[in-house]
C-alpha cells in the first residue's frame, strides 16, 4: 500500500468563500465535542483550582486547537475525501470552502489557541496543546495515514492529549495520573477506529488508505481489536488505584470494560458488519461514560 500514496493536489476549480456553517464544519464539531469533554475531565480531576473564566479559556483553547487541526487535516486530505462516501460531503470536496482558505483558517486558529493557552494559563499546557496539534497534522495526517496500517495506533496519540492538557492547565505539570488518562484514550482509539474501518473498508480501499482491514484483512483486525479491549480492561480501572476515581468509577469502568470486550468478541465471531457498527457506536459511549463518571464523582465532593 505504500506505493499507492496519493499526494494532495491543488484544487483549481473556482470556489466561493464558504458560509459560517461551512467553516464550522471544517472544525469537525462532533470529534471536537469528545476531545473537549476529555479535556474537561482532566481539568476536573486535577488537584488544584482554576478561576471559572480561566477554565473556560482553557476549554476554548482545547476546542479551537482540535478544530483547527481538523481543518488542516481536511485541507491535506481533500483528494481522498472526495473519493470516500463518508467524507465526500465535507466543505472542500463540495467546493464550499477554498482549500487555501481552509489551510489559513486552520493555521491561524492553531497559533491563536496555543498562544492564548500559554499567556492565560501556563506554557506547559500550551506546549502539550501544540504537541497534540503538530502530532495530528504532521505525524498522523501527513506521514502515517497513507503509509502504514499502524497509522491510527501511532497517530491516535494526538487524540489522547486533551485530558493531559486539561490537567496541565490546572497544575502546570504532567503526572502519572494524567499519563494514565492519556493511555486510556491511546489504547481506546484502535478498536474504536478499526470498528469504523471494517464497515467502511471499501471507502479506504478505493482511496488507497492502508487501514488495517484493507492491508491485513478483517480477521486479523478483529483479533487486534479484542487484544486492545483486553488491555483497556485493567487500564481503565487504574484511576481508582491512583486516587482520582472512586468506587462508582471502579464499578462503572469494570462494567463498561467487560461490555467493550464482549462487543469485540461479537465482532470477532461475526461474518457481517453489523456487530462492528454496534461496537463503533458503543466505543463512543464507553469513553464518554468513563469521563462522565470521573467528572461526576469530583463535582459531587
From TrEMBL:
Q: Which domain of life is it from?
A: Bacteria
Q: How does it sit in the membrane?
A: Multi-pass membrane protein
Catalysis: reaction(s): heme b + (2E,6E)-farnesyl diphosphate + H2O = Fe(II)-heme o + diphosphate
Q: What is its EC class?
A: transferase
- Which BP terms from GO are recorded? heme O biosynthetic process
The entry's localization annotation reads: Cell membrane
Membrane-crossing residues? 31-48, 54-76, 97-117, 123-144, 151-170, 176-199, 225-242, 248-268, 280-300
What protein is this chain from? Protoheme IX farnesyltransferase
Which species is this record about? Niveispirillum cyanobacteriorum
The UniProt gene name for this protein comes to ctaB
Amino acid at each position: 500500500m505504500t506505493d499507492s500514496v496519493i499526494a494532495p493536489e491543488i484544487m483549481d476549480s473556482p470556489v466561493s468563500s464558504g458560509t459560517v456553517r461551512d467553516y464550522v464544519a471544517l472544525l469537525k464539531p462532533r470529534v471536537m465535542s469528545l476531545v473537549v469533554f476529555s479535556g474537561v475531565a482532566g481539568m476536573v480531576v486535577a488537584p488544584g483550582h482554576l478561576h471559572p473564566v480561566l477554565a473556560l479559556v482553557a476549554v476554548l483553547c482545547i476546542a479551537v486547537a482540535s478544530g483547527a487541526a481538523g481543518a488542516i487535516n481536511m485541507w491535506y486530505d481533500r483528494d481522498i475525501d472526495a473519493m470516500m462516501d463518508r467524507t465526500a460531503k465535507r466543505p472542500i470536496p463540495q467546493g464550499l470552502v477554498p482549500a487555501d482558505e481552509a489551510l489559513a483558517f486552520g493555521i491561524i486558529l492553531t497559533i491563536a489557541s496555543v498562544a492564548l493557552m500559554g499567556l492565560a494559563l501556563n506554557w506547559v499546557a500550551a506546549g502539550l496543546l501544540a504537541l497534540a496539534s503538530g502530532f495530528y497534522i504532521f505525524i498522523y495526517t501527513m506521514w502515517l495515514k497513507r503509509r502504514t496500517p499502524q497509522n491510527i495506533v501511532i497517530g491516535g496519540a494526538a487524540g489522547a492529549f486533551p485530558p493531559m492538557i486539561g490537567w496541565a492547565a490546572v497544575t502546570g505539570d504532567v503526572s502519572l495520573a494524567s499519563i494514565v488518562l492519556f493511555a486510556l484514550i491511546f489504547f481506546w482509539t484502535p478498536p474504536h477506529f478499526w470498528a469504523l474501518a471494517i464497515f467502511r473498508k471499501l471507502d479506504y480501499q478505493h482511496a488507497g488508505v492502508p487501514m488495517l482491514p484493507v492491508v491485513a484483512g478483517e480477521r486479523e483486525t478483529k483479533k487486534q481489536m479484542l487484544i486492545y479491549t483486553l488491555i483497556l480492561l485493567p487500564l481503565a480501572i487504574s484511576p481508582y488505584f491512583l486516587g482520582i476515581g472512586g468506587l462508582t468509577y471502579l464499578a462503572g469502568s469494570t462494567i463498561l470494560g467487560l461490555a467493550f470486550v464482549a462487543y469485540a468478541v461479537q465482532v470477532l465471531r461475526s461474518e457481517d458488519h453489523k456487530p462492528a457498527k454496534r461496537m463503533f457506536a458503543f466505543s463512543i459511549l464507553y469513553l464518554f461514560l468513563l469521563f462522565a463518571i470521573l467528572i461526576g464523582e469530583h463535582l459531587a465532593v
